[in-house]
Write a structure and sequence with these properties.
Helix content: 25-40%
Radius of gyration: 16 Å
Number of helices: 3
Largest sheet: 4 strands, antiparallel
Oligomer: single chain
Distance between the termini: 22 Å
Structural class: alpha+beta
Shape: globular
CATH class: Mainly Beta
Order of helices and strands: EHEEEEEEHH
CATH architecture: Roll
Strand content: 25-35%
Length: 159
């Protein structure tokens, strides 16, 4: 269970260590200004190969019908080590608009601990690997790189 801090558009096409710091700071400020920190976890984040599900919870902590789905193949970056709070896990997602243009959004969740945030980063890294391996074996991805070289592109930066 996590507290979903929200999403914010982010710019750039190269996602390297530290690229989520500024968006996470903005999301954290909005979260604390809204005094939402007095509420318990409001979501359940489930990371699987191909998809990440963010189940929204009601005030009783029960799952609602509202769920956000993220395709693993469209996640450009994730990290679990932020200066503002080590308990935050964030990912950059390529959202495709109706006109087929796209935007990059940074999503962030606050976990119960730094360890839980790191576990999510490692789970995301495994989901990347499984998704990429499956897409490559299905012929949906054609690369000349060895699988070891490609796996480095999908490593999460968890500090």
């Amino acid at each position: 269970q996590v507290t979903y801090l929200g999403k914010i558009p982010t710019t750039g096409m190269q996602f390297l260590s530290g690229c989520t710091e500024k968006p996470v700071i903005e999301l954290w400020k909005k979260h604390t200004l809204a005094r939402e920190d007095i509420y318990p976890a409001n979501a359940l984040l489930e990371i699987r190969p191909f998809q990440v599900w963010l189940h929204h919870l009601d005030l009783k902590g029960e799952a609602t019908v509202h769920m956000d789905t993220f395709q693993v193949a469209r996640i450009a970056y994730c990290t679990a080590d932020h200066n503002i709070s080590p308990n935050i896990f964030a990912w950059v997602y390529r959202e495709i608009n109706d006109d087929l243009s796209y935007q990059m959004d940074c999503h962030a969740v606050e976990c119960e601990s730094k360890l839980e945030a790191k576990k999510l980063a490692h789970a995301m890294m495994e989901a990347f690997k499984k998704t990429f391996h499956s897409m490559k074996s299905d012929g949906r991805i054609h690369r000349n790189n060895s699988s070891e070289e490609v796996s480095h592109e999908f490593e999460s930066d968890d500090g």
